[in-house]
């Protein structure tokens, strides 16, 4: 069997052999073994959230709801369940494609909303958020992305949460921490986060299949019978799981098995802190390697999440991204196209089962391929 390509992408990402192997089992949804695994997975996710919270999260006040589908299903389930048609007014803090996706969800659900836009190549400016909230605080919900995967910028969600709760004490704070939770530190309590969403195939390093929402039980239950969607009703999903330990609809059994293994491997690695150290090291190897041959990165270093980094295309007539991508892929290394609206860029992820030697190999291969393509080194802009 041919070895898998290395995915330098923000999910689906490269998983370990043992994570893939854990899926070689058929379990029924009512199987005792499966029910125990679901409980184990929920406990461990809350443990991670507690671990990341500096003052310790009171775990009897928070729960985790697993939701079938990709990350967006988790995000949409929060909006479907926790907003009221004529009463809610959502402030979306947007600095990239995933903030824009929340805007789109609000539009489709006809939820009143206002989008406060920030440049897509920077982290959100907390002083600007403060000035805005001082003048306008007529919102029931605020939504923000933690690691904006579009660019690799890291938003300071704890600081934003503190500002939000100072100016709108009774509001609900929704944080999309899709590509950050499990590695990038996030203090749910300090940041007054009511709903935090992530998914199986990001920093926990498992396969796709479900998302999960870590949330305040009290806030969640205040939206009982409110959902406008059946399948995305987060309260119903929570209550049913509490009563029966089962998903309401067909569970992603194999994905949950892989996830349990991935959580064990996160623990073996030393937890989120150690994992973040590895990702940061991966990130720095590629950054230093590419900067040394003249590439320019999009987001200032101190605002980067270390999850993914964005580099400008060289200004060289011999550079062609499709060709560059294909040559790398043919050699077993998959990178990611850019998602910027203004700049022509490509992205390199540092998450997944990737280690220092993989990152060094990628840099070497990039140099070799640029030479083969007759792109001038140092890179010209
Ligand atoms: C920050 C963020 N939010 C939302 C999503 C959407 O997740 P999915 O593609 O799994 O639906 C992603 C995907 O990469 C993401 O990075």
UniProtKB/TrEMBL annotation:
The modification N6-(pyridoxal phosphate)lysine is found at residue 202. Keywords: Aminotransferase, Pyridoxal phosphate, Pyruvate, Transferase. Transmembrane segments: none annotated. Pfam families: Aminotran_5. It catalyses: (2-aminoethyl)phosphonate + pyruvate = phosphonoacetaldehyde + L-alanine; glyoxylate + L-alanine = glycine + pyruvate. Substrate binds at residue 347. Its EC number is 2.6.1.44. Its cofactor is pyridoxal 5'-phosphate. GO terms for molecular function: 2-aminoethylphosphonate-pyruvate transaminase activity; alanine-glyoxylate transaminase activity. SUPFAM superfamilies: PLP-dependent transferases. Residues 60-332 form the Aminotransferase class V domain. The keyword Transferase applies. It is an enzyme of class 2 (transferase). One of its GO terms (biological process) is organic phosphonate catabolic process. Belongs to the class-V pyridoxal-phosphate-dependent aminotransferase family. HAMAP family: PhnW_aminotrans_5. PANTHER family: 2-AMINOETHYLPHOSPHONATE--PYRUVATE TRANSAMINASE. This is Alanine--glyoxylate aminotransferase.
């Amino acid at each position: 069997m041919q070895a898998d390509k290395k995915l330098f992408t923000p999910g689906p990402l490269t998983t370990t052999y043992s994570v893939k192997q854990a899926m070689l089992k058929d379990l029924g949804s009512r199987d005792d073994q499966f029910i125990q695994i679901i409980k184990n997975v929920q406990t461990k996710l809350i443990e991670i959230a507690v671990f990341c919270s500096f003052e310790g999260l009171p775990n009897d006040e928070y729960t985790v709801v697993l939701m079938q589908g990709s990350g967006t299903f988790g995000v949409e389930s929060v909006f479907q369940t926790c907003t009221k048609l004529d009463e809610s007014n959502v402030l979306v803090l947007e600095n990239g494609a995933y903030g824009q996706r929340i805007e789109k969800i609000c539009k489709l659900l006809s939820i009143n909303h206002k989008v406060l836009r920030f440049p897509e190549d920077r982290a959100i400016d907390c002083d600007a958020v403060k000035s805005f909230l001082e003048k306008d605080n007529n919102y029931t919900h605020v939504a923000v992305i933690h690691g904006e995967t579009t660019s690799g910028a890291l938003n300071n969600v704890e600081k934003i949460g503190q500002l939000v709760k100072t100016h709108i004490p009774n509001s609900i704070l929704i944080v999309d921490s899709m590509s950050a939770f499990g590695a990038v530190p996030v203090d749910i309590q300090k940041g007054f986060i009511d709903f935090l969403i992530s998914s199986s195939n990001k920093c926990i390093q498992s396969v796709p299949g479900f998302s999960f929402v870590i949330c305040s039980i009290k806030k969640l239950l205040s939206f009982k019978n409110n959902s406008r969607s059946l399948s995305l009703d987060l309260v119903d999903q929570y209550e049913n799981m509490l009563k029966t330990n089962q998903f309401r609809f067909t569970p992603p059994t194999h994905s949950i098995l892989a996830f349990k293994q991935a959580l064990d491997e996160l623990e073996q690695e030393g937890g989120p802190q150690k994992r973040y150290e590895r990702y940061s090291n991966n990130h720095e190897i590629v950054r230093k390697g590419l900067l040394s041959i003249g590439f320019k990165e999009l987001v200032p270093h101190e605002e980067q999440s270390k999850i993914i980094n964005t580099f400008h295309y060289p200004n060289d007539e011999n550079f062609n991204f499709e060709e560059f991508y294909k040559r790398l892929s043919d050699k077993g290394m998959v990178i990611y196209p850019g998602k910027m609206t203004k700049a022509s860029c490509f992205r390199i992820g540092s998450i997944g089962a990737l280690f220092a030697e993989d990152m060094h190999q990628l840099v070497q291969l990039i140099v070799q391929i640029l030479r083969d393509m007759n792109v001038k080194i140092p890179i010209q802009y």
